[in-house]
Amino acid sequence: MSSTKSINLEKALADLEGLVEELESGDLPLEKAMKKFEEGIKLTRSCQKSLKDAEQKVEILLKSAGGESLEDFDSEDDL
Fold it and tell me: Phi, psi at residue 35, to the nearest 5°?
């Protein structure tokens, strides 16, 4: 993942956090809230794609180095 993609991911996450705060405040009219929500969905999809791309790159690097494949992560929330 290039540094540009990393910066974009970090910026997208920061923007998403800002949108969540705005929406949680409850001070937005419905029409603006819906636009912010739609923007948040787009940012979320962008972040998911960036993370998936990074995961695929890590898998490729591990395979080319003769390493083991990645295992699914089980968070404590899933227990």
Answer: -65, -40
